[in-house]
Amino acid sequence: MLAAGFWRRSLDEFKRLSGVALRLEAIDTAKNPRYLASFSDPETLSLCKIMSDSDIGGFSTSHLDYHASTAHSPSHARFHGTISTDLPPNNPEIQRTGYAGWRTKDRGATIFGRGVWDVDPYAYCALRVRSDGRNYNVNVQTESIVPSDLHQHRLYARRPGEWETVLIPWGEFVRTNHGVVVQPQAEMLRQRVRSVGISLTDRIPGPFELCIARIWATNGLGPDDERGFGDEDGLDFVQPGESKTSKETPRHGKML
User: Fold this and answer.
1) CA distance 137 to 142
2) Distance separating alpha carbons of residues 136 and 19, to the nearest angstrom
3) Residue 252 pLDDT
4) Which residues contact 65 (CB under 8 A, 6 or more apart)?
5) Could you tell me the pTM of the whole model?
6) Element (H, E) at 147
7) How far apart are CA 107 and CA 160, in angstroms?
8) Segment (H or E) for 256
9) Most buried of 17, 190, 212, 254, CB within 10 angstroms?
10) Cα–Cα distance measured from residue 13 to residue 10, given in angstroms and rounded to the nearest whole number
């Protein structure tokens, strides 16, 4: 007998696909954002998997905590811990440590097949974050021929310690495997995204902290994105193509 969660996921996917059809988004630019990770309540943490080199005997720590919204911050997950490059003393096969990360868990199956995200109708991956200024990577895993492949992009935060929205063009993610850029490069299979997440691999010993309110696919930032997410004035967003004289420069990422 199929579990209740299977039918619930199937119904949610049917509603989404029906909405896409009614809005003609299959033949037009998608207008509504596609949320990939949104930390709106404590239960959302159960949809994520936490990782660090402690899984192989290292000494880095990694935590993901929920924080409710306040007058100055949206509800968010706090990704924090400590990076250590110490090697496990009794395992000579481990030659490199010093990383931590988290990702969304694989989505369950539905009557439409394995649960994946189709972000092909969207131009950008958007993240609402408050960074400590360290060099984090945004990771996207798809149904690749090589299961261990990741598409990665550096998370360029311009205002450490403050909430900001970062836009990364999907086409600028780089295919990697175990942190090494893979050749030849292959375009991301955007129709079959399995998970998204963030990692810290700069191998600089010490504490880290990155707050994440949400991650979503979008074709630009609308009025709802410009209000109520920790900004004092809502003017730190830029629509693609807007003049620098009206708002700040878009926070697009760069290649690794």
Assistant:
1) 16
2) 35
3) 52
4) 45, 77, 78, 80
5) 0.78
6) none
7) 32
8) none
9) 212
10) 5
Residue 71's region, left for phi above 0, alpha for psi from -120 to 50, else beta, is: alpha
- Token pair 């007998």 in the structure block, residue: 1
Tokens of 51: 């990782």
Contact 199, 83 (CB under 8 A): no
Q: And the tokens for 131?
A: 């960074």
Q: How far is it, in rounded angstroms, from Cα 215 to Cα 92?
A: 38
Q: Encoding tokens for residue 78?
A: 């706090």
Q: Is the peptide bond before 184 cis (omega within 30 degrees of 0)?
A: yes
pLDDT tens sequence across 157-176: 999 999 999 999 999 999 99
Looking at mean pLDDT, say which of 8-22, 46-60, 212-226 comes out highest.
46-60
Q: Across the beta sheet with 180-181, what order do the strands follow?
A: 48-52, 100-104, 193-200, 136-142, 149-154, 174-177, 180-181
pLDDT in tens, 131-160: 999 999 999 999 988 888 999 999 999 999
Q: How many residues does the chain have?
A: 256
